[in-house]
Amino acid sequence: MSWPVKPLGQICGIVAGQSPPSETYNKNQAGMPFFQGKADFGELFPTVRTWCSKPNKLAEPNDILISVRAPVGATNLCNITACIGRGLAAIKPSDKIDQKYLLYYFRYFEPILSESGNGAIFSAITMSDLKEIQIPLPPLEVQKKIAAVLEKADALRRKREEQIKRLDELLQATFLDMFGDPVTNPKGWPVKKLGNLGLLDRGKSKHRPRNAPELLGGAYPLIQTGDIANSDYYLTEYNSTYSDIGLAQSKMWKAGVLCITIAANIAKTAILGIDACFPDSVVGFIPGKETNVEFIHIWFSFFQQILENNAPESAQKNINLAILRDLEVIVPPLNEQDKFKCVFKSIQKDLKSQQKDSLAQSDSLFNSLMQRAFKGKLELK
User: Fold this and answer.
1) How far apart, in whole angstroms, are the C-alpha atoms of residue 34 and residue 48?
2) Burial letters 43-55, b for 16+ CB under 10 A, else e
3) What is the mean pLDDT of residues 206-232?
4) Which of 66, 157, 162, 79 has the alpha carbon at shortest distance from 114?
5) Mean pLDDT, range 9-36, rounded to an integer
6) In terms of C-beta density within 10 A (0-12 exposed, 13-18 middle, 19 or more buried), how is residue 203 classed?
7) H or E, element range at 241
8) Which of 164, 192, 195 is nearest to 356 (CA)?
9) pLDDT value for 121
10) How far, in Å, are 119, 336, 351, 367 from residue 358 at the CA level?
11) Residue of 101, 77, 112, 155 whose CA lies nearest to 380
12) 346-355 b/e with 16+ CB inside 10 Å = b?
């Protein structure tokens, strides 16, 4: 089926974001909500993390927000009036195109768009390029039907994601039920510094530059801060590997080590499910005889935001080994921690594994429907 195609700039208005003066940023809800880039995006709508007292370029409800800088192509729906920074653009659909249809088209097109970004320092797409993106335009009634089909499949996918999130919350609730709030320690457990509960050491990446070609592309998994931030409880997936030369200037850690990020992503944790290397922006924790990694992993989840909010910031936020070693950890009896470890593994390996399989099926269905819809092969009633 062949549909007419038109450039985005002919069927939508586009507002390029522009960041207000940095001194007007705040976390105190003073002024207008401020979205800076893809980092503010949720599954469908962005999350307000920052406000600004002197807004420049604005997005309005029903606009589609698109990331135009590192990464390129990610989208969200704007549900409030907000200031947008230069990492975003606001697309304003006209009456020629259905908003949800256009949103899903961009999500279908995102992999191609992300590869089209250019720039010496980071990937970006210009407003001229954005305006020239070719949009297929079936009749408006057909657009709405396509959007309705994709929205149902997307809702199923998001429901599976929500169920997985609920399992994460169940683990935290179980921790609180067994041990109380680790911040206030209402059960009066003994407290010890993290550095006295096991071995803490930074990863190694001695060579500069760290991304030298001869270091990479071999057989040895290289775990980085983003892998940890985006992982589940046990980390088995990675995006980079070391060569023999890379391994020689680094260190291989055994599966079971708790990885803790100390730069960019602050105090995010994951348990290594494989033997792997990691750089000095990650700290490894090997527990002693008084604790286990599952207990410490969930313990960190209660302190992560506190540590991030208080992290020193220069070019990027970071903490150091001294800060980690000084953290005060509640130390319930090991047999109680081991009971929690059993719950942890049961939720992770049984319940969560089932939900992940269901999510994978939902993702596959959604992606298949998008492929068929925008190639004109989706059967519509």
Assistant:
1) 7
2) eeebeeebbbbeb
3) 91
4) 66
5) 94
6) buried
7) strand 240-242
8) 164
9) 42
10) 38, 32, 11, 14
11) 101
12) ebbeeebeeb
